[in-house]
Amino acid sequence: LMKIKSAMETLTVTVVGSSKNVAHVELCRAKHGNAMNSSFFTEFRETFQTLAKDQTIRAIVISGKGSHFSVGLDLKDQGGAIQKTLSDKDIGRKIWEMNKELLELQETFTAIEKCPQPVIVCVHGACIGGAVDLVCAADIRYCSQDAFLSIKEVDIGLAADLGTLQRLLHTGINSSLARELCYTARNMDAKEMESSGLFSRSFASREASLS
Questions:
Q1: 198 with 173: CB under 8 angstroms?
Q2: What is the full DSSP assignment across 8-77?
Q3: Which helix (H) or strand (E) holds 126?
Q4: In this structure, are residues 126 and 68 in contact, taking their beta carbons and an 8 Å threshold?
């Protein structure tokens, strides 16, 4: 692999497949539900930017270690980062800084979309908030039967602005359902995830979806 960091806090990257040409990117903060902290956004973005240039890699698979794919943003970590960014600034500079930070976070998942290789995401357990932003950027979406999804941002007064609102309608689900999910933050189980067209297939387990 081209210049992928060997020791990352939030991800592991391995080359799999009989021809060793599939990159398996695993979210590895299992003790924290694979919550997305500041390090995740940097590491994930840089990993995909590197993989995009690696001509030996023909496909990329994303999964999560532990009980859940990802519970979304690490609110404690991200909240602290925002407070640090905005401290001691006038309102104009605060908005400018917030916009800069948001564009960098959005670029993390846009890096999936820009990848020339097909990107397959395999979801198990919880897929919440920021994890849905990630999932919507992938080319192919699989889930296990224990999976559930929630666009949770509305419950804490946020917008799903890291990609869900921009990409959800391009995943195959209808406009009414997309709005319902965004407005209510309700859970969508694996059966509905597949029947709605958001995910193409469901499997008995995480292992089965990866096989």
A1: yes
A2: -SSEEEEEETTTT-EEEEEE--GGGTT-B-HHHHHHHHHHHHHHTT-TT--EEEEEE-TT-SB--B-HHH
A3: strand 126-128
A4: yes
Contact indicator for 85, 102 with CB cutoff of 8 Å: no
- Tokens at 123, concatenated: 């979801």
The confidence score (pLDDT) of residue 192 equals 96
5 has a pLDDT exceeding 70? no
- Strand pairing of 188-189 and 22-27? unpaired
Which pLDDT tens digit goes with each residue over 70-113? 999 998 776 555 555 556 667 777 777 776 777 788 899 999 99
β-sheet bridge partners, residue 129: none
What is the pLDDT, as a whole number, of residue 83?
55
CA 125 to chain centre: 14
Contacts of 22 (CB under 8 A, 6+ apart): 15, 16, 57, 58, 59, 60, 61
Provide the token pair at 42.
């940097």
